[in-house]
Amino acid sequence: MVRMxxxxxxxxxxxxxxxxxxxxxxxxxxxxxxxxxxxxxxxYTNLFARDTPPRLVAKHAALLGKAMDxxxxxxxxxxxxxxLTAGYIESPVGCRPQYWHYxxxxxxxxxxxxxTPLTERNGMEYVEWLSAExxxxxxxxxxxxxxxxxxxxxxxxxIAEPYRIxxxxxxxxxxxxxxxxxxxxxxxxxxxxxxxxxxxxxTLHPHFDLAPHDKQPVVSWA
Length: 222
Hints:
Layout: E1 5-9, H1 12-28, E2 42-49, H2 61-76, E3 82-91, E4 109-114, E5 125-129, H3 134-142, E6 163-167, E7 174-178, E8 184-185, E9 195-203, E10 218-221
Antiparallel strand pairs: 1-7, 2-3, 2-10, 3-9, 4-7, 4-9, 5-6, 5-8
């Protein structure tokens, strides 16, 4: 079975580091959903991007780096991985649902730490493959089309492998790891608060990198 992996709570140090980053981020940028943002899209704020200078929370760059190192160790141990971007995913109340997709052609994985509760009314929806082979087989079937947005209607994909649809539910500061072949999308946020998740976009491919627009400080995407 292939599903979202729950890794327990992050340490007190990581919690304190993320709280400090949130305070500085909100001072510099503000919270998604404020009138100045005027959007119903999911927003990605990149606090870190590989091979670029620190941004938005530059004075806390060392703190962010130490927290990321600890989270990589918690999620991967000695397995070699590379961090491409890290920051926040913010979903305003009533935001548009995303299309079903794989991230970056299924070349990346994510570590997620919710900073607000993830519930059945706002948690990310994903396909839980019922066999270890099903996820990679589905990725192989799409080949070069993986960079395209997939349908909102999952039935239109004609998936042959057995699966279930799950929603990620977690408390603030839980640590979740999403494998590269988990088909997923963000649902409309039906809770009365902005959904905010700290994320780290990882790759197991040492020479893979993101396009420049994916490394911008703020990326808006439905």
